Amino acid sequence: MKPFKTLDAITCPLPQSNVDTDQLIPARFMKRSRADGYGGFLLHDLRFDETGAQKPDCPLNDPERQGAQILVSRRNFGSGSSREAAVYALVDYGINCVVAPSFGDIFASNAVNNGLLPATVSEDDCEALLAGLADGAQTATVDLEAQTIRAANLVLPFTVDPVWRTKLLNGWDDIDLTRSHAAAISAFAEADRTRRPWMQPRKTG
Amino acid sequence: MTVAGTESGRTLFDKVFDAHVIVKREDGQCLLWIDRHFLHEGSFHAFNKLKERDAEVARPDLTFGIEDHYVPTRTRDLSVIDPAIRGMIEQLRGNSQRHGLRLFDLDDPGQGIVHVVGPEQGLTLPGLTMVCGDSHTATHGAFGAIAFGIGASEVAHVLMTQTLWQKKPKRMRITVEGALAPGVSAKDIALSIIARIGADGAAGHAIEYAGSAIRSLSMEGRLTLCNLSIEAGGRCGMVAPDQTTVDYLRGRPFAPEGTLFDKGAADWLALQSDADAVFDREMHLDAADIAPSVTWGITPEDASPITAKVPDPENFEDPARAQQVRDALEYMDIRPGQCLSDIRIDRVFIGSCTNSRIEDLRAAASILKGRKASVPGLVSPGSMQVKRQAEAEGLDRIFLDAGLEWVDAGCSMCVGMNGDLVPPGERCASTTNRNFRGRQGPGSRTHLMSPAMVAAAAVTGHLTDMRELMQAPVAGGNIG
Q1: Chain A touched by B6 (CB under 8 Å)
Q2: In chain B, helix, strand, coil percent, each to 5?
Q3: What is the CATH number of the domain that holds B335?
Q4: Aconitase A/isopropylmalate dehydratase small subunit swivel domain: from which residue to which, for each copy (chain A) (predicted)?
Q5: Residue of chain B with shortest Cα separation from A188
Q6: Does the pLDDT at position B358 exceed 70?
Q7: B256, B262 contact by CB (below 8 A)
Q8: Which of B70, B241, B248, B424 has the fewest CB within 10 Å, making it most exposed?
Q9: Which of B123, B141, B168 is the last residue of a domain?
Q10: Which residue ranges of chain A lie beneath pLDDT 70?
């Protein structure tokens, strides 16, 4: 996974609360292979009407926000299902950071596993940032080392779980780390057989 | 009991979590042992990651495949369905076969929705850690297990290692004391909680449900309650095991038996929060304050008692919340101040991992018995075992005589992946868990409520206080 240090990019406002995973990628697209890319499905029903035409009022369709890599939204972003496809849709579209006052827990965890930074800001700072973008600010600079967002003459602090921060800064993948604990895992499983003999599923057929 | 070295007692969550820690890092990350891993058709992304690494499944004996998200409910013949949907089911079959996993496929008498099948097969036990690539995995916490949804990267991690890195979340206790009024169900408790604390009100927290009203719930009711923990943003929901839990598990196919069961039961009953355990958050509700509830908006926090009116966005001080309510009413095509019970519906759905168990079907049937539905609707039992039991009790006849469709088990119209959709613009009274925009199909409008409330709406054609239609229970079941 590519390390995340700083990101200076076009920034798109999405001033809605509860942008849930069913909005981020409607279920009907989830049969597709990832190899084809999920970017076209991102927020599909907010971006396109029934005929497939772009909805002009959707911020992602604003010609000045094309190529956005940062999204700013309101509270409870990514609530709902565990579908990692919601993160695939963002990442494949080109979004590498979402700024919001709160995130769905599973979404945020999935985001970090795909190198996407969920940056948590206060409600007030979020509204200030959204106002700055509405007033014409085009870009933002997200600095993960310093945990700041610079945009529209604002310098705003953001929080991210320290463990996730380290993982993103280094581009780490959990599996390799876990494999280094193979002996401890085997020892745990062995001891557990005696400690909780009832854990094993009885029927195997 | 206080553990040496700690200042106060431990919560139920702490006890189960601590017992699964293999490695604890200085930064708080814990490598957790996982006791059960369920997979459904959506697991193909994770299996592709295994393929990339040429990896095997570490513990096939603890890994179970279940066909539920994409399965057809009106036929079991895969040759007649959409090839893209068939492809999803076939991928799971291929991956299960390749890795030697027990699969509950369409031909299996135990097939059904993963969160219905796990408990009824005895795969779900108290004190376990359980994961699935599905956010409603919180359901299994009804047994005192730590159960939560994970994404595809984490599914791949569990497949390859039977472990997962987790940081201990904060602990929250929601205590509901007193007796629920007749007709008030676990669904109403959950909707009342979510309306109060918000759809992210429990974010970052593991919830324990406690109090006399929770104790008096059956396992089915506890499953409904824990299922909806994620709709409050909770990492998981739990109920401490008690005699109700143990009695439910005895004799289940995958549960231990004989002396092993007795040892298990002793261990399970010891899983209680210590009297001096400290929670990061506490919330108290009086059961008497909970009424049959419905949602009117596009997140589960948009819920009110059926006796209430549609809220007016102008009455919210927070501009973001006012905007959200305005957007919700526009999408739902309802007016501020309108009586909730005046909202007309186009169809009903009874099913999903939230409310498709035998008690749910009995509760709906008790309202529908001897009556006709005035709108079309689908009843999809949570598993084929539930279906057989319902038919043995004659519930299928009640639904069919009312004019509703009685179909096979699957996730069905909760998420519409199998093609069971609410048509654009239509309004559905639904026993499911999410009223998100387009959740039941593009342009669909969802009102969440209990099975008895859906049944009442089916009869009248509008959202209805089921207490006005209460009649004698069916087949020994009760409405609660």
Answers
A1: no
A2: 40, 20, 45
A3: 3.30.499.10
A4: 1-123
A5: B22
A6: yes
A7: no
A8: B424
A9: B168
A10: 204-205
